[in-house]
Write a structure and sequence with these properties.
alpha+beta; Diaminopimelate Epimerase, Chain A, domain 1; 2 domains; 8-stranded mixed beta barrel; 17 strands; 20% helix
């Protein structure tokens, strides 16, 4: 059996930056076990499989896999998948719906001779919870000092917009760059939050504020096969709730820029748009550029 695939770099305008994504086409006849093995073979943070949707109103169905498990939603696979499908269907501008396990995801794309841009409306608004944590243990886990944790009114909490992340504010860029995650202590800290039926152990989402509406972040999920991720759209979606809680936002549209992957030398830039009504998020969008790196054929 042969399957066509592409490797995309997402949240970047240039190849060999951003976050790598493997896209496998015409995957209707692949079973879950085969898809998981292929994802493990690529060993990127995510691999997507494009299947036909049962609903003609949806452009396609996406199955999303990390190296160890299938997940219901992720950001850079949605952005990359939207561009891949738009090109495959000769769509240069417009909107369409993708079907993911989390539900229906509304996407918009703009493709021209120079750039490929896609954005999507997050299908589930961010929620935040579990706000009381031991800052000393967290700092030890990250190879930092207690005073490196937090800035302004920000403090650690868990956030989710379909995928959960442990968002930890870091006082300075220097401290963010210094982080070395103690995997054993991390798992011990998070033991009470671990789902026995999933390979997904809460990832670290460490962030610092660069300037107003601009943040630099690092994401690590070593227990799920991702030592560090150069760009994490699902985390940016969850992070919208953190921004809503701690930052002063204007009524109407707010633009947040998130940089990631800098220390990994795979710089990524994620655009987060928040529509605020009565001081609450009414809707949120994640967007970014996509570059094609490679195309090929799988022999399965």
């Amino acid at each position: 059996m042969q399957k066509q695939y592409e490797i995309l770099d997402v949240f970047t305008k240039q190849s060999m930056a951003g976050n790598q994504l493997a896209v496998v086409y015409d995957a209707d006849d692949l079973n879950t076990n085969q898809m998981q093995k292929i994802a493990r073979e690529f060993n990127f943070s995510e691999t997507i499989f494009i299947q036909s949707s049962d609903d003609e109103n949806n452009l396609a169905k996406l199955r999303i896999f990390i190296p160890t498990d299938e997940i219901p939603f992720a950001g850079h696979p949605t952005v990359g998948g939207a561009i891949a499908l738009a090109k495959a269907n000769n769509i240069s501008q417009g909107e369409f719906i993708l079907e993911e396990k989390i539900g229906l995801v509304h996407c918009g794309i703009d493709i021209n001779n120079k750039t490929n841009y896609a954005e999507f409306r997050i299908p589930k608004l961010s929620e935040i919870y579990h706000e009381n944590h031991d800052l000393v243990r967290i700092s030890q886990c990250l190879n930092l000092q207690k005073n490196d944790i937090g800035f302004d009114n920000h403090f650690p909490l868990i956030c989710s917009a379909g995928m959960e992340f442990f968002a930890i504010p870091i006082a300075t860029q220097a401290a963010l760059n210094k982080i070395v995650l103690n995997k054993d202590l991390w798992k011990e800290i998070l033991e009470k939050y671990i789902d026995e039926n999933s390979q997904w152990i809460l990832p670290l989402y460490a962030y610092t504020k660069i300037s107003k509406n601009k943040f630099d972040v690092r994401m690590m999920a070593p227990h799920s096969g991702i030592d560090e991720d150069p760009a994490t759209g699902a985390a940016a979606a969850a992070f919208s709730g953190v921004v809503e809680k701690f930052e002063s936002l204007n009524e109407g549209e707010n633009f947040i820029e998130i940089s990631q992957g800098i220390k990994m030398e795979r710089p990524s830039f994620i655009n987060l748009k928040l529509d605020i009504e009565n001081s609450k998020i009414r809707s949120a969008k994640i967007g970014g550029y996509v570059s094609t790196f490679a195309k090929g054929t799988l022999e399965i």
